[in-house]
């Protein structure tokens, strides 16, 4: 398979009241063409920021990419000017968000917004764009698309809005779709609809997908490979079966033990003690060490790199140092 | 109050809102709810099913349109404002949002001690000691008492909210999605804490939630709601092992299992109809995979199909 | 019972974070210096004024700024610096009184209207009626009806500005009353007055404080207009408005008579506006969220 995107040692900082705070510190990950990658982590771990960095949308100021490289289909994204990046965003990489309401413009109809993407990036005329928009809405499972085209975002339910976002994202058949918690705001029956739709479209269009979520159930059901992030670092990556069967970083393992869905029959959940550290308050050395039951003094010595556990499966824990 | 009487019994409870431009929104539309002392009774359902409104009705933060609520043997809705206010010391609440539910201008000691001050309990020093004891019970230290909410993480704030909820030694605590705003690794801490406190304080929980795996872990009994109605009510084990209402089945099947290779989630077709204009007959029939003609005509009542297992479906059999 | 010690040590407390941010706000500091200077002049008028403000020295009429009279003298030979600092006392005093009255009355009306829905309609329609008149015209009419005096100027200006403060307080009360901590206080048995006093009021004040600095500025300006038009405190009382009114006839020959009080008004209003902008930047909750 060919590499579609390769991120190396990406670091992002934010200027705050308390000085420069690093929010992402040396993240490396990759995604092959047609692959479905899950990025898992809790709030503040940097998973959404990684996506924004790929999109060239890190808010700046106060944000700043301090080092690293993002190569997309062989091109260095961080070196591109705004015009080139805008073209990439529309045509090659598309993104959908947790709350489609904030990504859709409330004063334009759904049809106008989907058609605009087509007119700008595909150069379609007014009528052609409208027809194609209707087709897209039908394709993402919106009933009665001709009528929906004339409606405003607030007239649609959360599930339908997310379908509209997906239609707009797919309008130009991107090579990469970044989905940032696309189902978190939805009810579970609607979530299942959207996940099925995404899987369906992924098969049909063959695009690579980067699915960002905190929901281990969604990850297990949808992705082929998973990256686990904690406190601005990747702590584990590997094929989804391997990571779920043999979680090799203590954080991944503890996270899986602590969710009620996997703790069937126990009266007390094996919780992870402590709190998720905020950017700027990260401990020295391994950032999970203060909450880790396996921690030893050496954990504080330095940030552990990703050690191989099995082919394609890595974990950033010194217990795996050869 | 007879010894085996339920702590809380609501009957035919409804809340209808008049909507601008005519029409009535039936947020809760005729619900019976019986909660036994010491139980964790979960209310589950998707957004708009009325579970949060039902919780607020029980707390009398929202006045019901019809129905009755008996709590500790008293008719809650018949209480005059001052008597209701005094009753509130037995009736407590933990909110979903650990940010919005704590006054940002108050210190932790003021927040946790507020119910004590409202009910004029103890001297200043006694209240202070009580607040420190409460903080210890939820895993915080006296040093936290002088801090403001914004200095804490979501999980810590939820602990503050829990300490406040326990200040007056209530009987019933309405937990309104208490862990759904928290990080995954923090949820387990708060669930464990709630369970520990239930045991040590003899609490009864009315646990409003949408996360079925959390409910499966913590609940004793479960009421499943859809469009303002309870469609199934059962002991937890029975509900998860043998759900009888087609909606409960669909809800359980839609949850993605965190096990690669497990059967994929099964989507339920369609969307929840508007509570302004609910379907005739059974409210679930428009999405129900097994609906028959009768479902459009008769509104199914809850029927007891097994001990303590009640289902509102014409087709469900014992 | 075993409770997992769940709490990482907190960062050491930062005392007065709001004040810290204010004092890092450059325009706020400039405003503070400008307005503070005026306040110091007003408070220390007896110490600063080289002459009695009403003392006329006819041989010293129309002295330009310079030796003996730092800012010159007016058409009656009165020392302008002395009149200016005593005028500051009156002008700022009236402004402060207006802020106090509008602040208190506007808060009470706004709290009642925002929290108790039943009184909302009548109160706000009454406020709308007052706001329908142009501010200065209304103040002029009231002051003219009551007769020229400092107290009447305060009454007139307060009537004009109370609707504005009431509206602002009501708007934030409408937001705060829906917050979950208000629901929580109700659920824990809090009475309405308790909730108003402990939760709603403290959380609704920020926009009011900002607005009051602007009202202070308007009041100083409006007071000088009233005085200029002869419905403020009557001459020979030194107010900035009176001084400009008296100086306007001699603007060609003795420009300084009208210029110094004009400059004082200008700097006071500028200072207050800068203060208000700074407060808004720091107290505005939306900005607070962004700064984490």
Helix/strand-derived category of chain C reads mainly alpha
Q: What is the overall pLDDT average of chain C?
A: 85
Distance between the termini of chain C: 35 Å
**Helix-and-strand structural type of chain B:** alpha/beta
What distance separates the N and C termini of chain B?
33 Å
Q: How many alpha or pi helices of chain B?
A: 10
List the secondary-structure elements of chain B in sequence, H or E.
Answer: EEEHEEHEHHHEHEHEEHHHEE
What percentage of the residues of chain C does DSSP assign to strands (E)?
under 5%
For the record, the count of structural domains of chain C works out to 1
Q: What is the CATH architecture term of chain C?
A: Orthogonal Bundle
The biggest beta sheet of chain B, please?
8 strands, mixed
What percentage of residues of chain B falls in helices of 4 or more residues?
A: 25-40%
- Gross morphology of chain B is globular
H-E order of chain C? HHHHHHHHHHHH
The number of helical runs of chain C is 12
CATH topology of chain C: MetI-like fold
Low-confidence stretches of chain C: 1-8, 287-292
Structural features, described:
- The complex is a heterotrimer of chains A (322), B (318) and C (292).
- Chain A is an alpha/beta fold.
- Helix content of chain A is 34%, strand content 25%.
- In chain A, strands 6-7-8-3-9-10-12-11 form an 8-stranded mixed β-sheet, with helices on both faces.
- In chain A, helix 4 (110-122) runs parallel beside helix 7 and helix 7 (158-170) packs parallel to helix 8.
- The longest helix of chain A has 18 residues, at 188-205.
- The interface between A and B is large, with 47 and 44 residues.
Q: What is the compact description of this entry?
A:
Chain A has 322 residues and is α/β, with parallel strands linked by helices.
Can you tag this structure with a few keywords?
heterotrimer; B: 318 residues; alpha/beta; eight-stranded mixed β-sheet; four-stranded antiparallel β-sheet; 22% strand; C: mainly alpha; MetI-like fold; 71% helix; 0% strand; disordered N terminus; disordered C terminus
